[in-house]
Amino acid sequence: MMKLYLSKLFVTCPSIIQNNKKRIKILVLLIREDAMKFSDLTLGQIVESDQWLVISQEMIQMFADATGDHQWIHLDQERCKNESPFKTTIAHGFLTTSLMPKCFGELITIDPSRQTLLNYGVDSLRFLESVRVDDAIKYRFELIEIEQKPNGKLHKVKATVLIKGREKPALVGVFLSLLIG
């Protein structure tokens, strides 16, 4: 049985108003007890989530509200049935991208008393297949390069987002993280 432990508690207050009351979401990030240390990753090593994450319409709506991207292809289920080639709503590509740190953090850990991991940027990012509402996705990470910088080690990580039941991935990209400490 996989053991989980509480790693961090984040409290967010999205700007979603329902019945004149603010709805407050609490996100609890659980990390596997056997999560690998980031500093122990070796070149070419692949780490893949064994859990699938279902993309709900509520997640898509919250992302649309947070970013202001309210295109019908993401939100209007009735119009999508009639006009979209997907016949349902699809997630924003950047929603799929923005879930990467959460999924990475479930697999990889750092020692917060000695290390800091900074987002250093993106070398490449391609959206290859649309994620439809209620699709299940998971992330695969491969360490492809480590470069020593004056203030830490720059890690280039290739990320692939798999869609359950489909051959083509949702996205592939190379993301940069600077490990300080």
Question: Sheet with the most strands?
Answer: 6 strands, antiparallel
- Beta-strand content: 35-45%
Tell me the radius of gyration.
18 Å
Poorly predicted regions: 1-32
Terminal CA distance reads 33 Å
State the helix count: 5
Which class do the helix and strand fractions yield? alpha+beta
Shape descriptor: elongated
Mean pLDDT: 83
Instruction: Provide the succession of SSEs.
Output: EEEEEEEHHHHHEEEEE
Helix share bin = 10-25%
Number of β-strand runs: 12
What order do the helices and strands come in, and which of them pair?
Layout: E1 4-12, E2 17-18, E3 21-22, E4 25-32, E5 36-37, E6 46-48, E7 53-54, H1 57-67, H2 72-75, H3 77-83, H4 93-98, H5 100-107, E8 108-109, E9 116-127, E10 136-149, E11 152-163, E12 171-180
Parallel strand pairs: 5-8
Antiparallel strand pairs: 1-4, 2-3, 6-10, 7-10, 9-12, 10-11, 11-12
Give the tags.
alpha+beta; elongated; two-stranded antiparallel ribbon; 5 helices; disordered N terminus; 6-stranded antiparallel β-sheet; 181 residues
In short:
This protein is an alpha+beta fold and 181 residues long.
Structure description:
This protein is an alpha+beta fold and 181 residues long. The chain has helices at 57-67, 72-75, 77-83, 93-98, 100-107, and strands at 4-12, 17-18, 21-22, 25-32, 36-37, 46-48, 53-54, 108-109, 116-127, 136-149, 152-163, 171-180. β11 (152-163) and β12 (171-180) form a beta hairpin. The longest helix is centred in the middle third of the chain and has 11 residues, at 57-67.
